[in-house]
Design brief:
The complex is a heterodimer of chains A (116) and B (110).
Chain A (H helix, E strand, L loop, with lengths): L4 E3 L2 E4 L5 E6 L6 E7 L6 E7 L2 E4 L8 E4 L6 E5 L8 E8 L10 E2 L3 E5 L1
Parallel strand pairs in A: 2-11
Antiparallel strand pairs in A: 1-3, 3-8, 4-5, 4-9, 5-6, 7-8, 9-10, 9-11
Chain B lengths: L8 E5 L4 E6 L7 E8 L6 E6 L4 E2 L4 E4 L5 E6 L8 E9 L11 E6 L1
Parallel strand pairs in B: 1-9
Antiparallel strand pairs in B: 2-7, 3-4, 3-8, 5-6, 6-7, 8-9
The chains are: A mainly beta (116), B mainly beta (110).
Chain lengths: 116, 110
């Protein structure tokens, strides 16, 4: 069974440029998460989707970050414009559904973003 | 936010049991303890979770103290592939908001 797929794996851009990350969750998983992981730190939740609805985006910097999950499957996270401090690994995860008996989160390999 | 305290790093000899401690003194009565690990250049991987009873699966064992303020993850026979950062988090069962700390960097020594 395929895991969570993310692309690209690496991205280098100059500051003020836009960037987008794509995530394809595990088939059948209704819940999708985007995390940001700074160097030496644990992942930090940015946004969580239940199907196509964003149910927790309290940690998403809405001035420059946006996300969508059309049709409740794939998701895209966008930054526009990027700043130097956005350099991090962006992780996507998915889980079966809220309240499932074992709501294990499955993580993708992440996209490493470097902003110059 | 839920907070846990873990030692920043630990070493363990290959083949020995690795015991990773975690303090979660602010855990509430309906929160579970979850353990994830992150191998270099990969996303975190779920290991185990528990409420108040000790748990065991094919990867590890989880020992939770009676007052639930701390727990220990045990890898019974550590291998080089167990070298990773191990995160202890506590959250409501089925709750999707996992708050990761900085974890413990476990190094298995040949």
């Amino acid at each position: 069974e395929a895991g969570v797929v993310q692309s690209p794996r690496y991205k280098i851009i100059e500051k003020k440029q836009p960037v987008a990350f794509w995530c394809n969750p595990i088939s059948g998983h209704n819940t999708l998460y985007w995390y940001r992981q700074n160097l030496g730190q644990g992942p930090e939740l940015l946004i969580r989707y239940e199907n196509e609805e964003a149910v927790d985006d309290s940690q998403l910097p809405k001035d420059r970050f946006s996300a969508e999950r059309l049709k409740g499957v794939d998701s895209t996270l966008k930054i526009q414009p990027a700043e130097l401090g956005d350099s991090a690994v962006y992780l996507c995860a998915s889980s079966l559904e809220a309240g499932a008996s074992n709501n294990e989160q499955f993580f993708g390999p992440g996209t490493r973003l470097t902003v110059l | 936010d839920a907070k846990t305290t873990q030692p920043p790093s630990m070493d363990c000899a290959e083949g020995r049991a690795a015991n990773l401690p975690c303090n979660h003194s602010t855990i509430s009565g309906n929160e579970y303890v979850y353990w994830y690990r992150q191998i270099h250049s990969q996303g975190p991987q779920y290991i185990i979770h528990g409420l108040k009873n000790n748990e065991t699966n094919e990867m590890a064992s989880l020992i939770i103290t009676e007052d639930r303020k701390s727990s220990t993850l045990i890898l019974p026979h550590a291998t080089l592939r167990d070298t990773a950062v191990y995160y202890c988090v506590h959250a409501m069962f089925g709750n999707e908001k996992l708050t990761f700390g900085t974890g413990t960097r476990l190094t298995i020594i040949p």
